[in-house]
Amino acid sequence: MARYDRAITVFSPDGQLLQVQYAQEAVRRGSPLVGVRGAEAIVLAVEKRAVQTLEDTRIEKKIVVLDEHIVMGFAGLRADARILIARAQIECQSYRLTVEDPVSVEYISRYMAEMKQHYTQSNGRRPFGISCLVAGFNFDGTPHLFQTDPSGTYYEWKAAATGRSEKTVREYLEKNYSPEAVNTDEKTIKLAIKALLEAVHAGKRNLDVAVIKGGQPVRMLKNNTIISFIAEIEKEKAEKEALEKKKDYMNKMNNWGIS
């Protein structure tokens, strides 16, 4: 088995590229990231790494602007992300200068996916250990949310998750996403934060939340605003649990014939 994981261009006997699998494992160890596409806005939410006392927090960004209408969040290795972000930003500007139009969200997502795929079959290189959520509005005002992974594939989603506890968060989104759940900006933000809290350890709720709207600059929510959303979510959760306990109690009383 060892000889197959030394070279990224050699398949193992069961048809796997082991270096790509290792890159995907690096993503699964990264901070959880959630993207939700709403009726009028797209929300990206990510858990921030705990920073040292003297560290400049401006450097620690897991949500970055690629172009004035496109934002990217990532889970995985920051050093790898830095290279990919720089290349994507240059491509956005090059496209604008050449075509005199901004890139579409799908175009830049496909560009990054092709770059990742190239790194899975080139000697002297290794796959990018990051998964990206790319969100934005096209020139015609339509919202789009794409995901790219280390293998070089890309997909479009209504809501997506990557990073630590990806499966848990995605199952939550599949269960709770609906047009009614995202028909306002506030509901979209709340759903993204709720989903992210499924993967965030209690007591370590240090989040970044970006709101992308067509024709407007990207808005990063202030920490106080995020705390308010979390408090409201926890209050609703406590009320729901209390109501369920009351229903269970009443059902038991009815079963025992007590009115």
UniProtKB/TrEMBL annotation:
Subcellular location: Cytoplasm
Gene3D superfamilies (UniProt xref): Glutamine Phosphoribosylpyrophosphate, subunit 1, domain 1
Keywords noted in UniProt: Coiled coil, Cytoplasm, Proteasome
Keyword Cytoplasm: yes
Residue span(s) of domain Proteasome alpha-type subunits: 4-26
GO cellular component assignments: cytoplasm; nucleus; proteasome core complex, alpha-subunit complex
SUPFAM superfamilies given in the database record: N-terminal nucleophile aminohydrolases (Ntn hydrolases)
PROSITE patterns the record matches: PROTEASOME_ALPHA_2
Recorded coiled-coil stretches: 226-255
Any single biological process term in GO: ubiquitin-dependent protein catabolic process
Similarity section: Belongs to the peptidase T1A family.
Assembly behavior: The 26S proteasome consists of a 20S proteasome core and two 19S regulatory subunits. The 20S proteasome core is composed of 28 subunits that are arranged in four stacked rings, resulting in a barrel-shaped structure. The two end rings are each formed by seven alpha subunits, and the two central rings are each formed by seven beta subunits. The catalytic chamber with the active sites is on the inside of the barrel.
Function of the molecule: The proteasome is a multicatalytic proteinase complex which is characterized by its ability to cleave peptides with Arg, Phe, Tyr, Leu, and Glu adjacent to the leaving group at neutral or slightly basic pH. The proteasome has an ATP-dependent proteolytic activity.
Protein's name in the database: Proteasome alpha-type subunits domain-containing protein
